[in-house]
Amino acid sequence: MYLYHYYDIKKSPFFNLSALDITEAIKIQNEIIENKIGFASKRNNEYIERRVELEKIAYKIFTEKGGKPKSTFPHYFVIEECEWLETWYENPGYVKCNIDIFDINELSFTYGDLFPTFSERVNDGKEYRKNVYSYNEIIKLIEKYGFPQEWNKNGNHGPERYIEAHYWNNNIENILNNGIYKK
């Protein structure tokens, strides 16, 4: 199994708004919106505050399930390739990593993106809503439902387009050294 981290190659991989002071993160997000830079320009002005809120929820659920985060915010990946994510960036690239290079106790998952997973507007009763999963739990969901990027490639069947992985560790040197890059 591989985890993919998508990014714009004009920036370095793992540039993370969550690592910034909230005022600086909001400033950067507003610049992205104003300059209409990629998919992120479609986000609203409350994106950063909601992201911080969702990361706290994910952290809480993850630690309650026995996760061992080394940071208070995650770096974002998806399980397996998702071509749709390349459309988010003007100059797309990715870092592809075998899951074996990670400590699975530092990885949590949502079946779909964190935002729609915890959205009050998504009330379809699917069992994987409003939850964060451990590695073993996400494997069971994959066995049951498959990969959203296969059955929902065009987004016609709901908001889930991929399985999101959250790496709760700021030490990314191992990933940078062992990842396979597409530039």
Distinctive features:
33% helix, 16% strand, 6-stranded antiparallel β-sheet, 6 strands, alpha+beta, 183 residues
Layout of secondary structure:
Layout: E1 2-8, H1 22-35, H2 47-64, E2 75-79, H3 83-86, E3 92-98, E4 107-110, H4 114-117, H5 135-145, H6 148-151, E5 164-167, H7 173-178, E6 180-182
User: Which blocks of ≥5 consecutive residues have pLDDT under 50?
Assistant: none
**Mean pLDDT value:** 87
Instruction: Work out the helix count.
Output: 7
Categorize the overall geometry.
globular
Helicity level: 25-40%
Rg over CA atoms, rounded to whole Å, is 16 Å
How many independent structural domains?
1
Task: Name the assembly state.
Answer: single chain
Beta strand %: 15-25%
Class computed from helices, strands and strand pairing: alpha+beta
Biggest β-sheet, characterized? 6 strands, antiparallel
Distance between the termini: 21 Å
Describe the fold and architecture:
The protein is an alpha+beta fold and about 180 residues long. It has one domain. The chain has helices at about 20-35, 45-65, 85, 115, 135-145, 150, 175-180; strands at about 1-10, 75-80, 90-100, 105-110, 165, 180. A six-stranded antiparallel β-sheet has the order 4-5-2-1-3-6.
Summarize the entry for a quick read:
This protein is of the alpha+beta class. The chain has helices at 22-35, 47-64, 83-86, 114-117, 135-145, 148-151, 173-178; strands spanning 2-8, 75-79, 92-98, 107-110, 164-167, 180-182. The protein has a six-stranded antiparallel beta sheet.
